[in-house]
Amino acid sequence: MDDIKVFDKIIPQGYADAIEEDLLDREFPWYYVDDVTSLDYGNNSGLTHVPFKVGKVMDYYPFLKPLVYAIAEANGQPLKELYRIRIGFLPKNDEPEYEYNTPHVDFLWDHYTACYYVNDSDGDTIIFDKKMSDMGLSLSDEVMRSYVEKTKFEIVKRVSPQKGRVVIFDGKRFHSSTKPRNHKRRLVITVNFS
């Protein structure tokens, strides 16, 4: 799949270390969500922090702005528009039947999705064969939920979290996070942009 790109060490080690230290600080403001996929399935819980979304800039955004530009540069195109920066914290999962969280897309319009891995972990990002364009229907959350429930997704790429690594792919491609089994946490900064 030529729309999936993986890059290691896209930022200096000192900056990568500082991001990880900040996110693990006991004062960092994490917020619980029932569903990290945003479709409200209710079985993909985790912690989140959103330093940027269109129309809203939070205190932590200036510290992450250089990361956004490093991701755009790695993608080979100048940053046109930033839609969201979302930091995710998924805790260890010991459920034997658990495979991965619900396949989803972050936004219903053309964009790129980038997952920057803050720490080494075993909670892979799963990227599937299907794209929103395969649906051939008008898009809404209800249509998306029905499509996801009825569709058999094939995995085309698994990307393991490695500190300093980023995976960038077509944002219309269905993807999923997974909770780690062998590490305490999976910390990922997701950047949606064009």
Summarize the structure in words:
By secondary structure, the protein is an alpha+beta fold. It has one domain: Jelly Rolls (Sandwich). 19% of the residues lie in helices and 32% in strands. It contains three helices and eleven strands.
- Supply the number of helical segments: 3
Radius of gyration: 16 Å
- The overall strand count is 11
Provide the CATH architecture.
Answer: Sandwich
| Helix-residue proportion | 10-25%
Q: Can you tell me the number of structural domains?
A: 1
Strand content: 25-35%
Q: What is the chains' assembly state? A: single chain
CATH superfamily: q2cbj1_9rhob like domain
**Measured distance between first and last alpha carbons:** 19 Å
Q: Can you tell me the residue ranges where pLDDT is under 50 for at least 5 consecutive residues?
A: none
Give a quick rundown of the structure.
The protein is of the alpha+beta class and 194 residues long.
Topology:
Blueprint (H helix, E strand, L loop, with lengths): L4 E3 L5 H12 L6 E3 L12 E8 L2 E2 L3 H15 L6 E10 L20 E6 L7 E7 L9 H10 L4 E5 L6 E5 L2 E4 L8 E9 L1
Antiparallel strand pairs: 1-9, 2-3, 3-4, 3-5, 5-11, 6-9, 6-11, 7-8, 7-10
